[in-house]
Amino acid sequence: MKKYLPGLFLSILIALISLWLSQFIPIGAVAIGIVLGIAIGNLFTLSPNLLPGIGFSEKKILSWAIVLMGVKLNFNILQELGWKSIIMIILSISFTIFSAVLLSKLFGLKPKLGLLLGIGNGICGSSAIAATEGIIGADKEDVGLSVAIVNFLGTIGIFVLPFVSKVVMHFSDVHSGFLIGDTLQAVGQVVAAGFSINDGVGHTATIVKMMRILMLTPVVLVLIGVFHKQNKVKAISNKQKKVFPYFIIGFILMSLIPSLHLLSQHTIDIIAKSSHYLLIIAMVGIGLKVHFSGILKHGQKALSIASLVFVLQILFGIFLIQLF
Protein backbone atom coordinates (compact mmCIF):
# COMPACT_ATOMS: atom_id res chain seq x y z
CA MET A 1 0.00 0.00 0.00
CA LYS A 2 2.97 2.30 0.60
CA LYS A 3 3.62 2.67 -3.12
CA TYR A 4 0.12 4.10 -3.64
CA LEU A 5 0.14 6.66 -0.83
CA PRO A 6 2.14 9.54 -2.43
CA GLY A 7 0.09 9.70 -5.63
CA LEU A 8 -3.15 9.02 -3.78
CA PHE A 9 -2.38 11.84 -1.34
CA LEU A 10 -1.73 14.22 -4.25
CA SER A 11 -5.03 13.26 -5.92
CA ILE A 12 -6.96 13.75 -2.67
CA LEU A 13 -5.27 17.09 -1.99
CA ILE A 14 -6.17 18.42 -5.45
CA ALA A 15 -9.72 17.07 -4.99
CA LEU A 16 -10.07 19.00 -1.72
CA ILE A 17 -8.84 22.16 -3.42
CA SER A 18 -11.38 21.54 -6.21
CA LEU A 19 -14.19 21.22 -3.66
CA TRP A 20 -13.17 24.51 -2.09
CA LEU A 21 -12.92 26.28 -5.46
CA SER A 22 -16.35 24.96 -6.49
CA GLN A 23 -17.85 27.42 -3.99
CA PHE A 24 -16.67 30.24 -6.24
CA ILE A 25 -16.52 28.70 -9.72
CA PRO A 26 -19.91 27.46 -11.02
CA ILE A 27 -18.72 24.51 -13.10
CA GLY A 28 -18.62 21.96 -10.26
CA ALA A 29 -15.84 20.25 -8.33
CA VAL A 30 -15.57 17.34 -10.80
CA ALA A 31 -14.77 19.62 -13.74
CA ILE A 32 -12.44 21.77 -11.62
CA GLY A 33 -10.65 18.63 -10.42
CA ILE A 34 -9.92 17.34 -13.89
CA VAL A 35 -8.82 20.80 -15.12
CA LEU A 36 -6.48 21.22 -12.12
CA GLY A 37 -5.16 17.72 -12.70
CA ILE A 38 -4.43 18.45 -16.34
CA ALA A 39 -2.73 21.76 -15.47
CA ILE A 40 -0.54 20.30 -12.72
CA GLY A 41 0.31 17.17 -14.71
CA ASN A 42 1.52 19.26 -17.66
CA LEU A 43 3.15 22.19 -15.85
CA PHE A 44 5.20 19.99 -13.50
CA THR A 45 7.20 16.82 -14.01
CA LEU A 46 5.59 14.23 -11.78
CA SER A 47 7.87 12.02 -9.73
CA PRO A 48 7.76 8.30 -10.67
CA ASN A 49 6.83 7.65 -7.02
CA LEU A 50 3.50 9.42 -7.64
CA LEU A 51 2.44 7.34 -10.65
CA PRO A 52 1.19 4.17 -8.85
CA GLY A 53 -1.12 6.22 -6.59
CA ILE A 54 -2.37 8.33 -9.50
CA GLY A 55 -3.10 5.15 -11.43
CA PHE A 56 -4.93 3.77 -8.39
CA SER A 57 -7.04 6.93 -8.30
CA GLU A 58 -8.00 6.85 -11.97
CA LYS A 59 -8.84 3.15 -12.04
CA LYS A 60 -9.75 1.62 -8.68
CA ILE A 61 -11.28 4.70 -7.09
CA LEU A 62 -13.17 5.42 -10.32
CA SER A 63 -14.63 1.91 -10.19
CA TRP A 64 -15.77 2.41 -6.58
CA ALA A 65 -17.25 5.79 -7.47
CA ILE A 66 -19.26 4.26 -10.31
CA VAL A 67 -20.55 1.42 -8.11
CA LEU A 68 -21.72 3.86 -5.42
CA MET A 69 -23.12 6.15 -8.11
CA GLY A 70 -25.87 3.60 -8.69
CA VAL A 71 -27.51 4.62 -5.42
CA LYS A 72 -28.54 7.88 -7.08
CA LEU A 73 -30.90 5.98 -9.38
CA ASN A 74 -34.43 5.51 -8.13
CA PHE A 75 -36.65 3.78 -10.65
CA ASN A 76 -39.72 4.80 -8.67
CA ILE A 77 -39.35 8.17 -10.38
CA LEU A 78 -41.02 6.52 -13.40
CA GLN A 79 -44.32 6.72 -11.52
CA GLU A 80 -44.09 10.52 -11.47
CA LEU A 81 -43.71 10.79 -15.24
CA GLY A 82 -46.28 9.83 -17.84
CA TRP A 83 -45.34 7.61 -20.75
CA LYS A 84 -45.42 10.62 -23.03
CA SER A 85 -42.65 12.34 -21.05
CA ILE A 86 -40.60 9.14 -20.86
CA ILE A 87 -40.81 8.66 -24.63
CA MET A 88 -39.78 12.31 -25.17
CA ILE A 89 -36.74 11.86 -22.90
CA ILE A 90 -35.67 8.64 -24.65
CA LEU A 91 -36.00 10.33 -28.06
CA SER A 92 -34.02 13.34 -26.85
CA ILE A 93 -31.16 11.25 -25.45
CA SER A 94 -31.01 9.12 -28.61
CA PHE A 95 -31.01 12.21 -30.81
CA THR A 96 -28.22 13.87 -28.81
CA ILE A 97 -25.91 10.85 -28.85
CA PHE A 98 -26.60 10.15 -32.53
CA SER A 99 -25.98 13.81 -33.46
CA ALA A 100 -22.64 13.84 -31.64
CA VAL A 101 -21.48 10.63 -33.31
CA LEU A 102 -22.64 11.79 -36.78
CA LEU A 103 -21.10 15.26 -36.51
CA SER A 104 -17.85 13.80 -35.21
CA LYS A 105 -17.71 11.53 -38.24
CA LEU A 106 -18.52 14.36 -40.65
CA PHE A 107 -15.91 16.73 -39.22
CA GLY A 108 -13.17 14.20 -38.55
CA LEU A 109 -13.26 14.11 -34.76
CA LYS A 110 -12.19 10.92 -32.99
CA PRO A 111 -15.30 8.67 -32.86
CA LYS A 112 -14.92 7.75 -29.18
CA LEU A 113 -14.45 11.39 -28.19
CA GLY A 114 -17.61 12.26 -30.12
CA LEU A 115 -19.46 9.44 -28.38
CA LEU A 116 -18.33 10.68 -24.95
CA LEU A 117 -19.51 14.20 -25.79
CA GLY A 118 -22.88 12.82 -26.87
CA ILE A 119 -23.25 10.70 -23.73
CA GLY A 120 -22.19 13.56 -21.47
CA ASN A 121 -24.56 16.02 -23.12
CA GLY A 122 -27.38 13.53 -23.46
CA ILE A 123 -27.49 11.91 -20.01
CA CYS A 124 -25.76 13.32 -16.96
CA GLY A 125 -22.46 14.99 -17.74
CA SER A 126 -19.33 13.87 -15.89
CA SER A 127 -20.99 10.86 -14.24
CA ALA A 128 -22.12 9.40 -17.57
CA ILE A 129 -18.68 9.95 -19.09
CA ALA A 130 -17.01 8.30 -16.10
CA ALA A 131 -19.39 5.33 -16.20
CA THR A 132 -18.86 4.66 -19.91
CA GLU A 133 -15.27 5.63 -20.74
CA GLY A 134 -13.91 2.26 -19.63
CA ILE A 135 -16.53 0.38 -21.64
CA ILE A 136 -15.76 2.12 -24.92
CA GLY A 137 -12.01 2.20 -24.27
CA ALA A 138 -11.57 5.95 -24.57
CA ASP A 139 -8.20 7.67 -24.15
CA LYS A 140 -7.62 9.69 -20.99
CA GLU A 141 -7.22 12.83 -23.10
CA ASP A 142 -10.69 12.20 -24.52
CA VAL A 143 -12.16 11.76 -21.04
CA GLY A 144 -10.55 14.93 -19.69
CA LEU A 145 -11.52 16.99 -22.70
CA SER A 146 -15.13 15.77 -22.79
CA VAL A 147 -15.67 16.36 -19.06
CA ALA A 148 -14.31 19.90 -19.29
CA ILE A 149 -16.34 20.77 -22.41
CA VAL A 150 -19.63 19.27 -21.23
CA ASN A 151 -19.42 21.06 -17.87
CA PHE A 152 -18.50 24.33 -19.59
CA LEU A 153 -21.53 24.13 -21.89
CA GLY A 154 -23.80 23.19 -18.99
CA THR A 155 -22.67 26.23 -17.03
CA ILE A 156 -23.56 28.49 -19.97
CA GLY A 157 -26.88 26.68 -20.23
CA ILE A 158 -27.82 27.68 -16.67
CA PHE A 159 -28.29 31.23 -17.93
CA VAL A 160 -29.41 30.48 -21.50
CA LEU A 161 -32.20 27.92 -20.90
CA PRO A 162 -34.41 30.06 -18.59
CA PHE A 163 -34.20 32.90 -21.13
CA VAL A 164 -35.02 30.61 -24.07
CA SER A 165 -37.90 28.84 -22.33
CA LYS A 166 -39.62 31.88 -20.82
CA VAL A 167 -38.62 34.94 -22.88
CA VAL A 168 -38.17 33.44 -26.35
CA MET A 169 -40.66 30.54 -26.36
CA HIS A 170 -43.08 31.76 -23.64
CA PHE A 171 -43.40 28.22 -22.33
CA SER A 172 -45.56 27.29 -19.35
CA ASP A 173 -43.85 26.28 -16.11
CA VAL A 174 -44.26 22.58 -16.94
CA HIS A 175 -42.80 22.96 -20.43
CA SER A 176 -39.98 25.20 -19.17
CA GLY A 177 -39.12 22.60 -16.54
CA PHE A 178 -39.12 19.85 -19.13
CA LEU A 179 -36.81 21.77 -21.50
CA ILE A 180 -34.34 22.58 -18.71
CA GLY A 181 -34.39 19.07 -17.24
CA ASP A 182 -34.11 17.52 -20.69
CA THR A 183 -31.07 19.48 -21.85
CA LEU A 184 -28.75 20.60 -19.06
CA GLN A 185 -26.04 18.11 -18.17
CA ALA A 186 -25.55 18.07 -14.37
CA VAL A 187 -28.17 17.91 -11.62
CA GLY A 188 -26.76 21.06 -10.03
CA GLN A 189 -27.11 22.93 -13.31
CA VAL A 190 -30.72 21.79 -13.69
CA VAL A 191 -31.58 22.83 -10.14
CA ALA A 192 -29.89 26.21 -10.55
CA ALA A 193 -31.64 26.98 -13.85
CA GLY A 194 -35.06 25.61 -12.89
CA PHE A 195 -35.43 27.22 -9.48
CA SER A 196 -34.09 30.52 -10.84
CA ILE A 197 -37.50 30.82 -12.56
CA ASN A 198 -39.75 29.46 -9.78
CA ASP A 199 -40.27 26.39 -7.60
CA GLY A 200 -42.70 24.77 -10.04
CA VAL A 201 -40.20 24.88 -12.89
CA GLY A 202 -37.45 23.68 -10.57
CA HIS A 203 -39.39 20.62 -9.38
CA THR A 204 -40.44 19.63 -12.90
CA ALA A 205 -36.91 20.06 -14.23
CA THR A 206 -35.47 17.95 -11.41
CA ILE A 207 -37.90 15.06 -12.02
CA VAL A 208 -37.15 15.08 -15.75
CA LYS A 209 -33.43 15.14 -15.01
CA MET A 210 -33.77 12.15 -12.69
CA MET A 211 -35.39 10.22 -15.52
CA ARG A 212 -32.47 11.08 -17.80
CA ILE A 213 -30.08 9.75 -15.15
CA LEU A 214 -32.05 6.49 -15.01
CA MET A 215 -31.33 6.08 -18.71
CA LEU A 216 -27.65 5.64 -17.89
CA THR A 217 -28.29 1.98 -17.03
CA PRO A 218 -29.75 0.92 -20.42
CA VAL A 219 -27.17 3.03 -22.26
CA VAL A 220 -24.36 1.29 -20.33
CA LEU A 221 -25.82 -2.13 -21.19
CA VAL A 222 -26.12 -1.20 -24.87
CA LEU A 223 -22.51 0.01 -24.95
CA ILE A 224 -21.31 -3.21 -23.29
CA GLY A 225 -23.04 -5.15 -26.06
CA VAL A 226 -21.63 -2.93 -28.83
CA PHE A 227 -18.04 -2.80 -27.54
CA HIS A 228 -17.79 -6.25 -25.90
CA LYS A 229 -16.34 -7.98 -28.96
CA GLN A 230 -13.89 -5.14 -29.62
CA ASN A 231 -12.73 -5.08 -26.00
CA LYS A 232 -12.41 -8.87 -25.98
CA VAL A 233 -10.14 -8.82 -29.02
CA LYS A 234 -8.09 -6.00 -27.44
CA ALA A 235 -7.79 -7.89 -24.16
CA ILE A 236 -6.62 -11.05 -25.93
CA SER A 237 -4.01 -9.11 -27.91
CA ASN A 238 -2.75 -7.56 -24.66
CA LYS A 239 -2.91 -10.95 -22.88
CA GLN A 240 -5.51 -9.71 -20.41
CA LYS A 241 -8.36 -11.79 -18.98
CA LYS A 242 -10.77 -9.08 -17.90
CA VAL A 243 -13.06 -8.04 -20.75
CA PHE A 244 -16.22 -7.18 -18.81
CA PRO A 245 -16.41 -4.12 -16.52
CA TYR A 246 -17.73 -5.90 -13.41
CA PHE A 247 -18.13 -2.64 -11.52
CA ILE A 248 -21.17 -2.05 -13.75
CA ILE A 249 -22.86 -5.00 -12.01
CA GLY A 250 -22.26 -3.24 -8.70
CA PHE A 251 -23.63 -0.05 -10.21
CA ILE A 252 -26.86 -1.79 -11.23
CA LEU A 253 -27.21 -3.62 -7.90
CA MET A 254 -26.73 -0.35 -6.00
CA SER A 255 -29.54 1.19 -8.03
CA LEU A 256 -31.91 -1.33 -6.44
CA ILE A 257 -31.32 0.15 -2.96
CA PRO A 258 -33.40 3.34 -3.37
CA SER A 259 -35.89 1.66 -5.71
CA LEU A 260 -36.67 -1.08 -3.16
CA HIS A 261 -36.24 1.19 -0.11
CA LEU A 262 -33.53 -1.07 1.33
CA LEU A 263 -31.83 1.77 3.22
CA SER A 264 -32.93 5.00 4.83
CA GLN A 265 -32.77 8.18 2.78
CA HIS A 266 -30.11 9.55 5.14
CA THR A 267 -27.86 6.55 4.46
CA ILE A 268 -28.49 6.80 0.72
CA ASP A 269 -27.52 10.47 0.81
CA ILE A 270 -24.24 9.60 2.58
CA ILE A 271 -23.43 6.94 -0.04
CA ALA A 272 -24.28 9.35 -2.88
CA LYS A 273 -22.07 12.03 -1.36
CA SER A 274 -19.23 9.51 -0.98
CA SER A 275 -19.60 8.60 -4.65
CA HIS A 276 -19.30 12.28 -5.57
CA TYR A 277 -16.10 12.70 -3.54
CA LEU A 278 -14.56 9.54 -4.99
CA LEU A 279 -15.47 10.71 -8.51
CA ILE A 280 -13.62 13.99 -7.93
CA ILE A 281 -10.49 12.10 -6.79
CA ALA A 282 -10.73 9.77 -9.80
CA MET A 283 -11.11 12.69 -12.23
CA VAL A 284 -8.07 14.36 -10.70
CA GLY A 285 -6.14 11.12 -11.30
CA ILE A 286 -7.29 11.05 -14.92
CA GLY A 287 -6.40 14.72 -15.35
CA LEU A 288 -2.88 14.21 -14.02
CA LYS A 289 -2.21 11.71 -16.82
CA VAL A 290 -3.68 13.82 -19.63
CA HIS A 291 -1.22 15.48 -21.99
CA PHE A 292 -1.74 18.94 -23.49
CA SER A 293 -0.80 17.62 -26.93
CA GLY A 294 -4.03 15.62 -27.14
CA ILE A 295 -6.12 18.56 -25.93
CA LEU A 296 -4.52 21.03 -28.32
CA LYS A 297 -4.98 18.61 -31.20
CA HIS A 298 -8.69 17.98 -30.67
CA GLY A 299 -9.86 20.69 -28.27
CA GLN A 300 -11.14 23.40 -30.61
CA LYS A 301 -12.92 20.97 -32.92
CA ALA A 302 -14.41 19.07 -29.96
CA LEU A 303 -15.73 22.28 -28.40
CA SER A 304 -17.26 23.38 -31.72
CA ILE A 305 -18.98 20.03 -32.29
CA ALA A 306 -20.18 19.78 -28.67
CA SER A 307 -21.59 23.31 -28.85
CA LEU A 308 -23.45 22.48 -32.05
CA VAL A 309 -24.79 19.29 -30.46
CA PHE A 310 -25.98 21.27 -27.43
CA VAL A 311 -27.82 23.76 -29.67
CA LEU A 312 -29.42 20.92 -31.63
CA GLN A 313 -30.37 19.25 -28.34
CA ILE A 314 -32.19 22.40 -27.21
CA LEU A 315 -33.95 22.81 -30.57
CA PHE A 316 -35.00 19.16 -30.55
CA GLY A 317 -36.35 19.55 -27.02
CA ILE A 318 -38.44 22.53 -28.16
CA PHE A 319 -39.65 20.49 -31.14
CA LEU A 320 -40.71 17.59 -28.90
CA ILE A 321 -42.61 19.92 -26.54
CA GLN A 322 -44.54 21.41 -29.43
CA LEU A 323 -45.07 18.02 -31.08
CA PHE A 324 -46.43 16.27 -27.98
The biggest beta sheet, please? none
Question: How much is the average pLDDT?
Answer: 86
User: Which regions are unreliable across 5 or more consecutive residues at pLDDT < 50?
Assistant: 235-243
Q: What separation lies between the terminal Cα atoms?
A: 57 Å
User: What integer value in Å does the Rg equal?
Assistant: 19 Å
* Share in helix: over 70%
Shape summary: globular
DSSP helical segment count:
14
Structural class: mainly alpha
Q: How many domains? A: 1
Question: Which percent band covers the strand fraction?
Answer: under 5%
The ordered H/E elements are HHHHHHHHHHHHHH
| Number of DSSP strand runs | 0
Which key features would you list for this structure?
single chain; 14 helices; about 325 residues; mainly alpha
Describe this entry's structure for a reader.
The protein is mainly α and 324 residues long. The protein has one domain. The chain is built from 14 helices and no strands. Helix 6 packs antiparallel against helix 7, helix 7 packs parallel to helix 14 and helix 8 runs parallel beside helix 10. It is globular, with a radius of gyration of 19 Å. The N and C termini lie far apart (57 Å). The relative contact order is 0.19.
